[in-house]
Design brief:
Length: about 230
């Protein structure tokens, strides 16, 4: 008995693909800041002559950055609840974490479990990357050479992991490690985009280094939408 041949038209497949895309929305998280923006602390770089040469007048602390439009930068927003049991492929592309101008870049970032983290030293001075996790295995790396690269990863979800430099105490960053790709960090416009989020009921959490965490429940449909987390001085 000959097997039956089944033919599926490209039009039919395209329709399925377009429908699947339409069911995933972009959730924009905005973080307006209420009250007087705190004066940025001036960080002295005298401890390292090369850092001082880059910033002869010192540099502003990056702990709290209020944007020109009155929003808060470096707020980590992510789906905290609502994805139970779902599995997501780990990206093979590395997240780049740089030491440049005697500061960490980015200050706050998201990464998936087991996704490679490429750590770079772009400065001609000794830097150190010391992670301080509670559930993951920590690392403490000296990076004395400009252009030096190292790779690490995190084996378990954890929000947030602090990273500090033992050489330059003003340097600090945070990593949000998740089992899914639905997260974002507010930038210079005070907004973070959580893309391709399937329709459903979710708890969204917004975290900031100084102002703590807030949560909201949201119903996501196939339409793009936005939610607001108001942070106060």
């Amino acid at each position: 008995m000959k097997p039956k041949m089944i033919f599926v038209s490209w039009t039919f497949l395209s329709a399925i693909f377009i429908t699947a895309q339409a069911q995933a929305a972009v959730l924009t998280v905005k973080a307006p800041f209420e009250g007087q923006a705190p004066a940025a602390e001036n960080v002295k770089t005298d401890a390292d002559a090369k850092c001082k040469l880059m910033h002869p007048a010192g540099m502003a602390s990056d702990q709290v950055i209020v944007n020109a439009n009155g929003t808060l930068k470096n707020v980590f927003a992510y789906v905290k609840e609502g994805l139970s049991g779902q599995k997501f492929e780990t990206p093979k592309t590395a997240v780049t974490f740089d030491q440049k101008g005697c500061q960490y870049h980015p200050k706050v970032f998201g990464i998936m479990v087991s996704q490679p983290l490429e750590i770079l030293n772009s400065d001609d001075t000794l830097h150190n990357v010391h992670s301080l996790p509670k559930v993951n295995q920590g690392f403490n790396l000296g990076m004395p050479i400009k252009g030096m690269k190292l790779k690490k990863s995190f084996a378990k979800p954890e929000v947030m992991i602090k990273i500090k430099c033992e050489v330059h105490p003003w340097m600090g960053a945070y990593a949000g490690v998740l089992e899914h790709p639905f997260y974002g960090v507010t930038g210079e416009d005070g907004a973070a985009a959580i893309k391709d989020l399937p329709a459903g009921e979710y708890t969204i959490e917004a975290w900031h280094e100084k102002y703590g965490t807030q949560t909201q429940k949201v119903t996501v449909t196939d339409q793009d939408q936005e939610i607001v987390f108001q942070f106060k001085a």
